[in-house]
Write a structure and sequence with these properties.
Length: 220
């Protein structure tokens, strides 16, 4: 319990009417001071709702729910942004892997295989001639091969002037060794009686001398 000290009042002699009047004025001053102090004290501020009325328990509960919803909304927005960022990174990684796969060199296709007969030899020779820019057709090659060797890759002419001079004509298109060496097509075997090497060398020689093997209709 707190004991408050009272303001000391000067001793006043109450024996006269003048003294009594002074006492009355003094007490009146003290009363006015106490009234002014109480009026000036700030009143306690109480929270109010949007309509200006004091908050009820329900209002406080509603405010709590709104705060939770706002917090949940912020969290959900953050999660959504995070998910979008992850999707973006995943898409970039997938695109990067796609580019890397494309950058990997594709294995070379297996070389085309041709039949080991006159038809296959002519077709393979034509493919090489196209790559090397040597003119000629299937018909031109076939026609001259049949005339020169009857399609025998090991045919040898041992009676003409070349044979007499020691350089007989050999192979499908009856080529002599010096001509074969001069017009040999790179990438083919360096063997005079090899079917592909013989055909391409003869076609190369005919292209230089006659414009094309297609223009040859007799011994050349």
């Amino acid at each position: 319990m707190t004991v408050r000290s009272r303001a000391r009042v000067p001793a006043i002699n109450c024996g006269s009417s003048a003294s009594s009047a002074r006492l009355d004025r003094h007490l009146a001053v003290l009363g006015d001071a106490q009234t002014t102090t109480a009026a000036d004290a700030p009143a306690a501020v109480k929270p109010v709702s949007a309509n200006g009325l004091p908050l009820t328990a329900k209002d406080r509960a509603d405010d709590g729910k709104k705060a939770q919803q706002a917090a949940s909304s912020v969290t959900a927005g953050h999660l959504k942004v995070t998910a979008v960022e992850k999707q973006g990174r995943a898409a970039k990684q997938a695109a990067s892997r796609s580019v890397e796969r494309k950058a990997i060199a594709k294995p070379k296709a297996a070389p085309k295989r041709y039949a080991n007969n006159l038809d296959g030899w002519i077709r393979e020779s034509l493919a090489i001639m196209r790559d090397k820019g040597i003119p000629g057709s299937y018909e031109g090659l076939h026609r001259n091969i049949i005339r020169e060797s009857a399609g025998d890759p090991n045919a040898v002419n041992d009676w003409d002037i070349n044979a007499i001079n020691g350089v007989p004509s050999k192979g499908l298109l009856q080529v002599i060794q010096p001509t074969f060496d001069t017009y040999h097509v790179s990438g083919t075997p360096h063997k005079l009686t090899d079917p592909i090497a013989n055909i391409t060398a003869a076609a190369n020689y005919a292209a230089h001398r006659y414009g094309s093997i297609d223009n040859v209709n007799s011994a050349y």
